[in-house]
Amino acid sequence: METYNPKEIEARWQEKWLKEASFRIDKDDTSKEKFYILDMFPYPSGTGLHMGHTESYTASDVFYRYKKMQGFNVLHPQGFDAFGLPAENFAIKTGVHPAETTKQNMANYIRQMQSLGFDYDFSEQAVTSDPEYYKWTQWIFSEFYKNGLVYKKTTKTNWCPSCQTVLANEQVIDGKCDRCGTEIMQKEVPTWFFKITDFAEELIADLDNVDWPEYTKKNQRAWIGKSEGAELEFRISNSELRINVFTTRVDTVFGVTYVVVAPEHEILKQVQDDKIKIGNRDEVLEYIEKSKSKTELDRMEAKEKTGVELEGIKVINPFNNEEIPVYVADYVLGNYGTGAVMAVPAHDERDFEFAKKYNLEIKCVVEPDYDDFDIKDIHYKSAFSLRDGLTWNESLTETLKYQYSLIKQEKKSSNFYFKGDGILINSENFSDLSSNEAREKMTDWLEKEGLGKKVTNYRLRDWSISRQRYWGCPIPIVYSPAGEPHLVPQEHLPWELPTDVDFVPTGVSPLAKSKELQERTEKIFGKGWVAEYDTMDTFVDSAWYFLRYPDVHNAQEFCSLARREKWLPVDVYIGGAEHTYMHLLYARFIVKALHKIGHLNFSEPFLKLRHQGMVLDKEGKKMSKSKGNVINPDDMVAKFGADSVRTYMLFVAPLEDAVIWNEENIVGVRRFLERTWNYLSWEEIHRDGSNNSSFEKWKMGEVGETTSALKGSLNKTIKKVTEDIENFKFNTAVSSLMIFLNIIYKFSENKTFPNRIDMESTLTKGMNVGDFEKFIQLLSPFAPHLAEEIWQKLGHTESIFSSEWPKYDPKLIKDEEINLVVQVNGKVRDNIMVNADITEEDAKKIAMESEKIKVYTTGKEIRKIIFVPGKLLNIVV
Ligand code: ANZ
């Protein structure tokens, strides 16, 4: 038989799949259970598919083929996130219209995906820049608008001076634009917002109901940033004015020694207008002006805190009526809580730094529980000496005890801070309560006195969706001559993106220069009407695309009700972990909002989520253009074949871990596929060596019987591969297949043909063709081309993917016994036969009962057990 030639095999099968539309499904088929597996669709960039895509799309293709063979009706769609800045930037440079570039790039992506054997139906794709698609993006905007989930506001927003556009908070990474890396400025711009904050609580709570990686949930929760606390008022002396503060630590209120307002605080407007008279107005105004150039991040992370006192005014602590000073300082942010804080330097790090710098009082009011406190919560700046016989921590504790006794007696100020909860001191009748009790009692008191209330704050901000760019979905809004916004009525959707524009960014949206748009608007709405010139953030386009796939050609609805109910939500979603904050949050919001309005009967888009790891170069470095170490999937396919690339990607590491792309190692996977291929030749050579054509008989299942030990391995392999794929453990699935192939060869060589000259006696033995086929079926999701080819050679006329996924026989997968080495203090003392998958606990029990072990352990305390599953138990006494 010929040698393995992936180039020829793969091209032939890809053509056949395309011709026969192997990927086509009947979306209304009621005879099978549905399964919806989704990839994060790519942005069609000029550089083509990258290795990260290749990995996650391979994983989803494997899962799709496996589910299909299990008899599910599997929706496994693909499309393009086609609007966006790079195509527009390219247009600015070259003059080629973004639509043109995008089209070319998409064609290239499709070619690449097909060359990897990904079985997508591109006649059912969703392309976000397609008017038939964005009609529904606009419809969603309209629905939100009608239901009060959209508003327009002129606020200080993140502005990227290079992209000349507004960015959402999520798009600012470390104070820089997440696309171009330019330092972000703050600029006053009229902006449309989606009210994502209405859903903050649900967005946190419902994470409990989805099967997502824990770290992704954790990060999303942290991003939404729920914090429970109290709001209370500090009245300005001799005035009716009040400064409200938000605190999570009302239990520290007797330790407040000053109040800080953010530079944006409204009280400062009154200082500016001279309605509140202070002694140093100019100094304060200058400080406010200076802070304007700083980003939030600069302000929060500044090592050196700065601020200015508002001279001449004091505020009153509602709990003890003490008069305290007020500062403006930019470590307090204008848009969180109330934009003002009660400062407690003895219990808060930032307040402590500030108080030290400006020589403010540090009043300690919470004492740690010395038996149970976190040493990291203490910051003790002064020197203290190690005490005789005590550790560092114990010495610190003793020092603290002594300091606290002084503080309690003399109410002296402290020179350290303690951030943790503890027991209240020097807090009048709240003293001796725990922090928790105190928070509750103090909040009750505030509510009773009408001086404050319990509140929950979220860090999440509403989603700004206006972009001053061209290549995006037009916001379906027009303005009357009086400047009033109106929705573009449904019958005019899609509200098309004009083509007669100048792309060069000027800070004014390119749409403002379109004659066609102006004429269209006036023709429909009347003279003096103008269109909204901003386009939507492309994250809006991608926040709902998965709702479209079940019914991509529907011109009446975003998706018919029947298809919505049948297909949604998505069962499994695969994509990069870098999307935790933006895409995954936005998609959840859109679904929750559409659910609230009544268009969806579920409120979480992705029931199960898995991330792929990064693909790194040979040295473990990130691939980047500037480093010149980017690997192109095309080259890899040309060199090794798609099946080898696919199998290697998933074999080399667990899906969520980084893949080190080392060409030297792909060779091993390639050899595994070759050996699979060669098994047929092997049978042929050995069986037909006697010229009796028994290879044909073997293929027909007339000769060749699988020995029982081999049958056992096969059934275990079926079980393992099935469970591994089901659990996204593709690497161990592949390695089990490799192990099994070795076993096949071993058995064939040693047992089937012990004496190759004496063929007659052995020809009926060996591996049964039906069992070999099962192995090929298990391999088929990973190496679909090779599997189809072998399947056909074995006489099948239908595709292997319409065959049924192998099942194992539970009777044939009895546990194997292994020899467990038992050591005491590292010396081998016994060998015990146990089940291969014995647990540590059971192994310990059995070992402790062994007479040989008892000799060494009786009467001794067991200090440690070291257990190496399937191998060894070491008892340390
Ligand atoms: C007094 C206090 C004492 C505080 C103490 C902490 C420790 P999270 O958990 O993130 O919500 N804070 C409130 N508003 C702020 C703003 N606009 N800018 C900067 N900081 C602000 O943080 C809540 C705490 O952050 C609040 O509780 C407040 O400081 C500060 F021992 O109040 B705390």
Question: Percent range for helical residues?
Answer: 25-40%
CATH topology of one domain: Isoleucyl-tRNA Synthetase, domain 2
Instruction: Report strand %.
Output: 15-25%
Question: Radius of gyration, rounded?
Answer: 35 Å
Bound molecules: ligand ANZ
CATH superfamily of one domain: Valyl/Leucyl/Isoleucyl-tRNA synthetase, editing domain
What overall form do the CA principal axes indicate?
flat
Unreliable stretches = 751-764
Question: Biggest sheet, in brief?
Answer: 7 strands, mixed
How many beta strands in the DSSP annotation? 32
Description:
By secondary structure, the protein is an alpha+beta fold. Among the domains are: 226-373 and 420-458, Isoleucyl-tRNA Synthetase, domain 2; 663-812, Isoleucyl-tRNA Synthetase, Domain 1 (Orthogonal Bundle); 817-876, Ubiquitin-like (UB roll) (Roll). Helices cover 38% and strands 17% of the residues. The chain contains 27 helices and 32 strands. The strands form 10 sheets. Strands 8, 9, 10, 11, 12, 13 and 18 form a 7-stranded mixed beta sheet that branches. Strand 21 and strand 22 (485-487) form a beta hairpin. Helix 3 packs across helix 4 (98-115). It is flat. The relative contact order is 0.11. Residues 751-764 have low confidence and may be disordered.
